[in-house]
């Protein structure tokens, strides 16, 4: 198949400037297929191949999922997988090219290769034909990780302000780990030893290799969508830097950052720090440490509750004792020890006041009596009755007028004479 000047090709290998062709190589007015004039499979296949051929030679980065070396054959087949997606392509190359660029290449290794995409019309498959293969070294991997780390940090994926606190006692724990792995056993065993009633939803995935990142991201989405899961643990045992590369993948880091559920990273040992540790809400040094962080220790909590109860009891007893002491002090006061004393004291005071009041009243009565007696004596001394008692008499005319002179009465007039005792009637005759 050969391409024309504009890149459009014909089934017969000839190209036209306008790119319009028919199944038999003849041009149509608009160059499009119609229900009346459809394209045969060979034409579609040839057109697809022509479009793919336009891409030319490219550099491709990927992870080797499979290597097939046939004895005696000069061609080597590789399956190159995207580390962050469930996509793969077949790569064909010469054995000499592989031995020159990556003689120790193994499955799971990261490679950069120079290849040209090719479309095989007979099988309808797409593959890459490589003429140069470079195995990515550890130094280059670390440089890539450092660059990605700076990028994610600049975007705020490591920001401590966005990290969420783990629930004190989660209703259900989501666990993403390898099947029958030591990490799974450590998390489950230690968590249940600390809190026997803890509930786990475990999803087993590949934790290394080309399929690790897609599997982990898929499991993460499933657990994050489960409303019963309160915390998610991603756990893996120790390993080399290359073994832990999936946990520094950008796609996984962004998926963890987007989770609504708190995520705990428990990857490798204390010294292992994949990028997932920086993005997760909590970093556990080991899977065992993750078990200690996600659930409380029942024995420790019971001990703490006992201590709290003891402190509370001591505080209550201290309060009661203090109040009892205050009551005892109050009761020891005389006024409360012998309440009648106060009544008796007041009774004495009342009696004293009554005596003083009686004496004062009596004194005043005696004084008033003396005054009255003296006044009475003076009154009696001045009273006409006293004069009468000394032998004097009061002479009054008939009209009651007191006679003070003889000229005040006429001869034959009637007079009334009052004596100290009784009275007399007299007639004036001279």
From TrEMBL:
Subcellular location: Cytoplasm
Every Exonuclease VII large subunit C-terminal domain range: 157-373
Similarity comment: Belongs to the XseA family.
Residue ranges of domain OB-fold nucleic acid binding in the record: 40-134
Assembly behavior: Heterooligomer composed of large and small subunits.
Any one GO molecular-function label of the UniProt entry: exodeoxyribonuclease VII activity
HAMAP family assigned to the protein according to its UniProt record, in alphabetical order: Exonuc_7_L (MF_00378)
Catalysed reactions listed for this entry: Exonucleolytic cleavage in either 5'- to 3'- or 3'- to 5'-direction to yield nucleoside 5'-phosphates
EC numbers, comma separated: 3.1.11.6
Chain residue ranges for the region called Disordered: 1-40
Enzymatic class: hydrolase
Amino acid composition bias (Basic and acidic residues), ranges on this chain: 1-15
Keywords (A to Z) from UniProt: Cytoplasm, Exonuclease, Hydrolase, Nuclease
InterPro entries linked: Exonuc_VII_L, Exonuc_VII_lsu_C, OB-fold_nuc-bd_dom
One Pfam family in the UniProt entry: tRNA_anti_2
Role this protein plays: Bidirectionally degrades single-stranded DNA into large acid-insoluble oligonucleotides, which are then degraded further into small acid-soluble oligonucleotides.
Polar residues: compositionally biased ranges: 17-31
Protein name in the entry: Exodeoxyribonuclease 7 large subunit
Transmembrane segments: none
CDD domains listed in its UniProt record: ExoVII_LU_OBF
């Amino acid at each position: 198949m050969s391409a024309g000047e504009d890149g459009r090709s014909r089934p017969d290998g000839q190209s036209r400037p306008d790119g319009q062709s028919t199944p038999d190589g003849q041009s149509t007015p608009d160059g499009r297929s119609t229900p009346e004039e459809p394209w045969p499979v060979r034409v579609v296949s040839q057109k697809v191949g022509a479009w793919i051929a336009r891409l030319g030679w490219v550099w491709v980065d990927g992870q080797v999922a499979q290597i097939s070396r046939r004895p005696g054959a000069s061609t080597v087949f590789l399956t190159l997988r995207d580390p962050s997606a469930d996509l793969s392509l077949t790569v064909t190359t010469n054995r000499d090219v592989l031995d020159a660029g990556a003689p120790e290449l193994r499955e799971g290794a990261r490679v950069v290769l120079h290849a040209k995409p090719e479309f095989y019309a007979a099988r309808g498959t797409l593959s890459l034909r490589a003429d140069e293969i470079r195995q990515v070294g550890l130094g280059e991997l670390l440089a890539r990780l450092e660059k990605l780390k700076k990028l994610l940090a600049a975007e705020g994926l490591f920001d401590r302000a966005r990290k969420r606190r783990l629930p004190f006692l989660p209703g259900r724990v989501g666990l993403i780990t390898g099947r029958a792995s030591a990490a799974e056993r450590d998390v489950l065993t230690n968590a249940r030893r600390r809190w026997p009633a803890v509930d786990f939803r475990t999803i087993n995935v590949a934790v290394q290799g080309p399929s690790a990142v897609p599997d982990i991201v898929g499991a993460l989405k499933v657990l994050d969508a489960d409303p019963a899961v309160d915390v998610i643990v991603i756990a893996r045992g120790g390993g080399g830097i290359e073994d832990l590369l999936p946990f520094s993948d950008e796609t996984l880091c962004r998926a963890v950052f987007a989770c609504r559920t708190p995520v705990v990273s428990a990857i490798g040992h204390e010294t292992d720090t994949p990028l997932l540790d920086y993005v997760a809400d909590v970093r556990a040094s080991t899977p065992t440490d993750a078990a200690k962080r996600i659930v409380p220790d029942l024995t420790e909590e019971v001990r703490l509750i006992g201590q709290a109860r003891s402190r509370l009891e001591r505080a209550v007893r201290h309060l009661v004792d203090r109040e009892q002491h205050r009551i005892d002090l109050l009761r020891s006061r005389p006024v409360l020890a012998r309440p009648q004393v106060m009544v008796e004291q007041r009774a004495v005071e009342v009696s004293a006041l009554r005596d003083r009041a009686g004496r004062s009243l009596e004194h005043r009565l005696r004084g008033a009596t003396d005054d009255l007696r003296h006044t009475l004596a003076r009154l009696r001394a001045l009273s006409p009755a006293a004069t009468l008692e000394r032998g004097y008499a009061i002479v009054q005319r008939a009209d009651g007028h007191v006679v003070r002179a003889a000229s005040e009465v006429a001869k034959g007039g009637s007079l009334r004479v009052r004596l100290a005792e009784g009275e007399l009637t007299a007639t004036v005759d001279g």
